[in-house]
Amino acid sequence: MLDLPLALDLLVSALVGLAVGVEREWSGHTTGPDGRFAGIRTFTLLGLIGGFGGWFFRDGQPALAAVIIGAGVLFPIAAYAATLRRPGTTTDGTTEVAAMLVVAMGAASALGHRPLASAAAVLCVLLLAEKSTFQNALQQVAAHELRAALQFAGLALVVLPLLPSGAYGPFGAFQPRPLWIVVLLFSGLNFAGYIARRVIGETRGLAVTGLLGGLVSSTAVSFTFSRRSRAEPALALPLALGVVAACTVLVPRVLVTSWMLQPAVAAAAVSVLVLPFLVGSALIAFVMWKERETRVSPTPAEGSGSDPLPLASTPGQNPLALATSLQMALAFQVVLFAIAWVQQAVGPTGVLVSATLLGLTDVDALTVSMTRYGADAANVRVAAAAIGIGVLSNTMLKLAVVVSIGGPRFRARAAVGLLALAAAAGAGIWIGWP
What we know:
The chain contains 17 helices and no strands. By secondary structure, it is mainly alpha-helical.
C-alpha cells in the first residue's frame, strides 16, 4: 500500500535537489573548463539519497541511514578533491557545499520537516543565483560600517544576555537589561538612518534630508536649517519644509519606540499623535506637489559658509553613534528616577507637568520613560497623554528656534508649519485626554 506521507517526503527531497541543480545548470557552473561535477540529475539524486537516509532513520535503522547519508556527503567532497587536480581549476567549492546541503535537506524532509527543507532550498537557490548581487553589495560596504554591524551584534548577542533583568536602586527604577535595550534601540535607529542616507543620498531634496535627519534629531535639523536660512535665503521654502518634515517624522519615531517597549502605550498614543502626523504629511505633500517643477539642490553653494546637517553619524564615523546612544540612555535613566519620584510624590498630574519640561530636552528619553510608566494598565492613558504633551512642548521649542534664528522668509514659512503641527498636537491631546 502506498505510504502517502513518505511519498511526499521523498518528493520534496527530490525537488530541493532539482531546484539547486536547475540553478547550477542555468548559471553555467556545470560546463566549460572549470565545470563542476553536478547538474540537474545529480542534485536530484543527491536529494533522494538524503531522503532515503532520513526514511531509514525513521524506520529504526540508524546505521544504514548513517551509511547512506555519509556516502551522499562524501561524494561531493571526493568530487571536489578530484576537480582540484585538474590544471587551471579554481578553488571555488560552492557547488560541492550546496550538494552536501542538498543531502541534508533531503534527510530533513524525510524526517518530517518538509517546510524547513523547502525554506532552506529557497534560501540556498537565492544565495547561489544572486552571487553577483551580494558581491557588489559587499564592495559598497566600508570597513567602519562592517565594524559597526559587528559591534551591534556583539552588543545585542553578547552583552545583553549577560545583564541582570532585576530592578535596583531607588523606586526600583534602575533596570540594567531594559536600559541596555534602550541603548540598542537608539543605536539601531542611528544605524538605520545612516543606511537610509547612504541609499537615498542627502542631495535629493531638503525635505528628504529633513525626514532622514528627523530619524536622529529633529531639533538638530531645526537649528541647522534655521542657521542656513540666513546664509541662503533663496532656500527658505525648502528649508522650512525640511523642518516640518523632521518634526513630522518624529511622530512615527515615537510610536515605533513606544510599540517596541510597551504596545499598550503605543496604541493609546496613536489617537493623541495621529493628527499632527496627518497635518505634517499633508503640508509636505502639498508643498512638494506645488513645487514639483522646482529643483533646488540642498548642497551648500561653494563659499557659502553653511554647514551640512550634523546628523548623529556621517560616512567615516561610527554609524551606530554609540556615544550618543549611551548619553540618551543615561538621560533616560535620570528621567526614570525623576518620573518615579514625581509619580510617588505628586501623582499623574505631576507626571504631565514633568512631561512638558522633559519634552523640551529629549523626547526619546521621555517616550521610553513613559512606556515604563505605562507598564501599569491604569497609567496607559496618562502615559500616552504625557507623550503628546512632550511632543507639543518640543514643537514649541522648535518654533522658538526658527523664529529667533531663522531668516525672515524662512521664519514665516516654518512658523506656519510648526504652528499647524502644534495645533494638531493640542487637538490630539484633547481627544486622548485621560
